[in-house]
Specification:
heterodimer; A: 358 residues; mainly alpha; 2 domains; B: 329 residues; alpha/beta; Rossmann fold; four-stranded antiparallel beta sheet; 33% helix
Amino acid sequence: MSNDPKHRFNPFSMHVNVDDFIPATDEEKEYIVQMRPSTTFFRDGVRRLCRNKVALISFIVIVIITLSAIFIPLFWPYSYEQMLGVVPGKPVDPSYNNLQPFAYGKTEQKIIEEGGSVFPHIFGTDSSGRDYFIRVVYGTRISLAVGFFASLIVLIIGIVVGSVSGYIGGKVDLVIMRIVDIIYSLPDMLMVILLASVLRQTIGDALEGTVLERIGSNIISLFIVFGILYWVSMARLIRGQILSLREQEYVMAAKATGARPFWIIRHHLIPNCISVVIISTALQIPNAIFTESFLSFVGLGVNAPMPSLGSLASDALNGISSYPYRLIIPALVISLIVLSLNLFGDGLRDAFDPKLKS
Amino acid sequence: MTERNETPLVEARHLKKYFQVNVGAFKTAPLKAVNDVSFSIMRGETLGMVGESGCGKTTVGRTLLQLYKPTGGEIIYDGEKIESPASLKKFRTKASMVFQDPYSSLNPRMTVMDIIAEPLDVHKLCRTKEERRERVLQLMDYVGLNSEHASRYAHEFSGGQRQRIGIARALAVKPEFMVCDEPVSALDVSIQAQVINMFDELQDRLGLTYLFIAHDLLVVRHISDRIAVMYLGKMVELASAGEIYDRPLHPYTKSLISAVPLPDPEKARANRRIILKGDIPSPLRAPSGCPFRTRCAYATEACAESMPELKDVSGGHLVACHRTAEIND
């Protein structure tokens, strides 16, 4: 063998030249020690969600719509129920009814001529002289609230029933699932209409004088209808998840330490199916909004004068040839909300469903 | 191994566990996973339990810890029958379990800290957060995990490390008795050795008593004081580790021992393997009498008639076979 390994190439022996190595810098050492930060499933999902442009834009649209529905009524000079032509002690001024966008009523015109300024009616007014813009904003608020709270009710009932049914199993599961099957087999729109018309009467009487009366018996009956009808699919979904999760060994391990069923459900089962639950709730919201709009459109929704997007569209039908924008605006808002919620829900599913994980 | 005294810590008497399984559209039949098994484990001892897949060894472990409600028989721990909810609650802080699969036995949504602390939280053993943290770090130190790992999730670890996490969790309640349900069979051989040695060390250090379930005979021999052999829900032989290897009496044990691969080729060539005919019968249609008779080379008509009892044949060597004396002449 040669004395100078640098100049002789021997394929069977590896000669390491010490000069080729440089000491690691402090920065590099730091890198080895720290390794990569520990990522959680949740953070991983959020990162993937942020990479999805469609979902991100949908999310921004939802946030903007929600924030404006909450905050615009706080500072808007008109309220949703104020008839601008009606001033106490004076005859009704019909010039305020059915104003075109950015048009003004008689008294407002006068103020403007005198050099004063009047807040514009961006979408004009409706047939009773109410500012249409604020009514649309308020209707959005109602629709979003109904969608959100109805989904929340569905979520709570679904989690409770689904996890009890899935975890306990046996006869309890059998009974609950047969009830679910029965509710599932009923035509849901028919049930919604029937329940809504029956409940609004009974609830209206029951609520008289309570705080809930202000919200309106119709909205509350809507919540109940959603609660009664739509928990079934959520309960089924959660039951299915829990059935497969409870066979995992970590559940057995928790049992071996003496954990009670409630502990196991809360610490092991729900956290492991929460992504599926969130996704399905996100997709439930537009569904509820859609149903609420439909019910309001057929006259079973919110109590007048409270607007919802559906009742606004329904009211607009009377003047559809003269004022088509009054139908188009609420319809567009509904579409925008439902579309962006659906797209966002899809994005959530792509980001959090581990089965689609690439 | 630690000094052993001769008082049983855990005793199973006529333990039975049947599962109802659907055999037809409307019919269920009992699957006798564990069929009348009695044994006792002395304080500080390791009882190894071997047998082929489906013989009920895991079910014995789980029933012993009351993870399955026994169909019959009783479990006596430290002289006290485990029956009432109060005795069970106390038992849960004395006995714990290490699971076979280090992947599915750790909740993927919990940090190592929370996984190990779960038994402490369930039994409210730590009053302050600090106390809890210190105890977890101590446990991690016992099993050779770095304290920096506490905030990580289980999926960030290798199989061996995960099994260490599982062991730390089992140690959290300061148990006296641990059921180790094939704790090393999911690990590769080099890691197996580390984990097995750790079990040994922990036993010395903490005075633990083990029921060590495995199907690897060499692993069981290394760690066990006594070994029980199971076949089709029955215990067929129980003796000290050395006895089982040097002088197996039951024909099933003989064939198991002959199947152990020997590292020395000379010996391996000389080793006469006893190859059993047929498969293990379905526990749903267990043979009458001795469960092993369908595959046993020595079976006679008498074997079909009655189930042989587990009898002491020589100084603590128990065997369940009608023909022990004739076969082993």
